[in-house]
Write a structure and sequence with these properties.
Keywords: Membrane, Transmembrane, Transmembrane helix. By secondary structure, the protein is mainly α. The chain has helices at about 5-10, 15-35, 55-60, 80-85, 90-115, 115-125, 140-155, 155-170, 175-190, 195-225, 230, 255-280, 295-315, 320-325, 330-340, 345-360, 375-395, 400-425.
Length: about 425
């Protein structure tokens, strides 16, 4: 049989086979859409300098700069630009390196979690993963986030520490890991016989985060004279504590709003789960606390804190929310965990969609305030979004689930390529 070696490889290395198959399908669909003129641009050195790439490139070439009156590069953490400088790669070369790191981290995570092939393909097609293929921090954050999650999953304290340290050097969002870590440790320690271990891991985690933030502060103190510059400059990026406005919006427009709305829905769900777990933690003397894997606790806690931060600091804008939530290993872990839970009764899923309808209303979905749409157009838009969400929730129970997963996979891939095309033309899609 001419394909016998390939079949042997696929059986021995199923995760690598899925990733390779995804790359082939991605290349084929990209070639077809480009040939037919549906997408007009492919990544290159001449069209990648957009949005945050400008700031990472500036740090790579010049180091940090700071202004007390306007935006400046100290808002960004150093690992990506300094890695870029060390490799000497071009902009396109750094994009290839980022995409390679992401694929390696995803393959590692999928292998350790034993993700089914179809579920792996679906997760690989998540539209906002487009940011893995440009000089952004998403790939490094995914890599180190995978380390910390698998450290919790496999009981490897070293992976946990490396993951937290690497995330702390990569992105300012890692500052939120401190309350998330405390939340995880408290619930983990409440499980029988886990208190000492949870406290030890919590202490190591705090040291790793503190070391990373300390290095960033020292670098900025040496270069701009202020160790807390990365916190002070946030107000010039319009990130400051305030009440959110109604309706919620995103500067990226309709192309990203559905993804940001889905991320907001997931974040609100995470807030509800964290609140429920906190109540059960307070009641643990009367009834036992549900046993939830520590890595799932960390992922849920991160999602909850992130959505609270965005809602309280961006004035009703959900800009970047889907990028921070869906282009992360925390999304993979949560989808995996939901997929492994026992099947819920069908009526439960119907009730799960009711909170989603409330989230859609935050965008003015059922009023005249949504993006100049008529009421009917708005209802249709968010109705389709509800169907999309329902398909994910019902992955294990829907008839023809294999066909539905593949349909979602192809749709997501086309959207991924559309977003890349828009980004390369300079449109805001964060």
């Amino acid at each position: 049989m001419p394909f016998a070696p390939l079949l042997v490889f696929a059986k021995r290395y199923p995760t690598l086979t899925v990733v390779a198959g995804h790359l082939l399908l991605l290349a084929a669909i990209t070639s077809a859409l480009y040939a037919f003129g549906i997408i007009r641009y492919l990544p290159g050195n001449d069209n990648l300098m957009h949005l945050d790439v400008y700031w990472y490139d500036k740090i790579r070439q010049e180091g940090y700069s700071y202004s007390t009156t306007t935006t400046s590069s100290v808002a960004f953490f150093p690992l990506l630009p300094y890695l870029w400088r060390a490799t000497g790669l071009t902009m396109a070369g750094m994009s290839v390196l980022n995409f390679s790191m992401f694929l390696a981290a995803f393959a590692w995570l999928a292998h350790q979690l034993r993700l089914p092939a179809r579920l792996s393909l679906l997760l690989l097609s998540t539209p906002v993963l487009v940011f893995m293929a440009i000089p952004y921090t998403e790939a490094l954050f995914f890599l180190f986030g995978t380390c910390l999650l698998l450290g919790l999953h496999r009981g490897q304290l070293g992976w946990w520490a490396i993951g937290l340290f690497g995330c702390g050097l990569t992105r300012t969002a890692s500052l939120m890991f401190v309350p998330v870590l405390v939340f995880t440790v408290l619930l983990w320690a409440a499980q029988p016989g886990q208190a000492r271990r949870a406290l030890r891991w919590g202490g190591v985690g705090l040291l790793a985060i503190g070391a990373a933030v300390g290095i960033v502060a020292y670098m900025q103190w040496q270069q701009v004279g202020d160790p807390l510059a990365f916190t002070k400059v946030q107000k010039f990026w319009n990130n400051h504590l305030r009440w959110p406005d109604y309706p919620f919006v995103t500067p990226a427009g309709i192309d990203m709003l559905w993804l940001d709305a889905l991320a907001l829905c997931l974040g609100c769900g995470a807030v509800g789960v964290c609140g429920w777990l906190a109540v059960r933690w307070l009641q643990q003397r009367r009834r036992p606390l549900p046993v939830v894997p520590p890595m799932v606790l960390f992922a849920v806690g991160y999602y909850a804190l992130l959505v609270v931060y965005i809602a309280s600091h961006q004035g009703g804008s959900v800009w970047n929310l889907s990028r921070y939530m869906l282009a992360s290993p925390f999304f993979v872990v949560l989808v995996w965990y939901l997929y492994t839970l026992p099947a819920w009764p069908g009526r439960t899923y119907a009730w799960l969609l009711l909170p989603a309808l409330a989230v859609w209303q935050l965008f003015g979905a059922f009023s005249q305030e949504f993006d100049n749409f008529t009421w009917g157009q708005s209802a249709w838009y968010f109705g389709l979004l509800s169907v999309y969400l329902f398909a994910y929730l019902m992955l294990r129970q829907l008839p023809w689930r294999r066909e539905i997963i593949m349909l979602l996979y192809v749709f997501n891939l086309v959207m991924q390529l559309h977003l890349m095309d828009a980004l390369l033309q300079g449109y805001v899609i964060q």
